[in-house]
């Protein structure tokens, strides 16, 4: 008999305070090229067989994922590694006026992919993170599905 596959979701809401500042430096035609920020919301969708507790994921056991999200997005300035003003941001960090995180690329879509990767690294091997959604506010979100 084939085992049943279940889905479950975990959300970290805007109320968690994952407030970060970033810019899309390549979007020189848009106000998004300026520093701006949001209190981000993350939603994960998991799929797998039930464990011995009849859970797909132990929600209480996702604290490490929550901590990783805080590492990247809790009162951080997130900048792309190829930002032409990276030295400016590094100087801001040196002066103590910002907490800098440098990643390959920035934006809602990039953050969704990063969140998906973090989730898949932290869950048990027989469970998959199907998607990670990052929401800037009620009107804007991006979903990454590995």
Describe the 3D structure.
- By secondary structure, this protein is α/β, with parallel strands linked by helices.
- It has one domain: Tetrahydropterin Synthase, Chain A (2-Layer Sandwich), CATH 3.30.479.
- Helix content is 24%, strand content 34%.
- It has three helices and seven strands; from the N terminus they run βββαβαβαββ.
- Strands 1, 2, 3, 4, 5, 6 and 7 form a seven-stranded mixed sheet that branches.
- The longest helix has 15 residues, at 108-122.
- The two termini are 28 Å apart.
- The model has no long low-confidence stretch (mean pLDDT 95).
Summary, kept brief:
With 146 residues, the protein is an alpha/beta fold. It has one domain: Tetrahydropterin Synthase, Chain A (2-Layer Sandwich), CATH 3.30.479.10. The chain is built from three helices and seven strands.
- Report the structural category: alpha/beta
Low-confidence stretches: none
Radius of gyration: 17 Å
CATH superfamily: 6-pyruvoyl tetrahydropterin synthase/QueD
Topology:
Blueprint: E1 6-12, E2 18-22, E3 36-48, H1 63-73, E4 76-80, H2 86-94, E5 100-103, H3 108-122, E6 127-137, E7 140-144
Parallel strand pairs: 2-4, 4-5
Antiparallel strand pairs: 1-3, 2-3, 3-6, 6-7
Helix pairs in contact: 1-3
List its salient traits:
146 residues, alpha/beta, Tetrahydropterin Synthase, Chain A, 7-stranded mixed sheet, 3 helices, elongated
């Amino acid at each position: 008999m084939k085992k049943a596959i279940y889905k479950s979701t975990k959300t970290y809401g805007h109320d968690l305070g994952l407030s970060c500042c970033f810019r899309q430096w390549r979007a020189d035609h848009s106000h998004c090229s300026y520093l701006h920020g949001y209190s981000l919301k993350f939603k994960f969708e998991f799929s797998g067989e039930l464990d011995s507790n009849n859970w797909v994921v132990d929600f209480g056991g996702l604290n490490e994922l929550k901590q990783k999200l805080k590492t990247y997005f809790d009162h951080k300035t997130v900048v792309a590694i190829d930002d032409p003003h990276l030295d400016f941001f590094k100087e801001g960090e040196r002066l103590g006026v910002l907490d800098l995180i440098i990643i390959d690329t920035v934006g809602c879509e990039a953050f969704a992919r990063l969140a998906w990767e973090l989730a898949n690294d932290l869950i048990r091997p027989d469970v998959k993170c199907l998607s990670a959604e990052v929401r800037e506010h009620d009107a804007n979100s991006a979903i990454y599905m590995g």
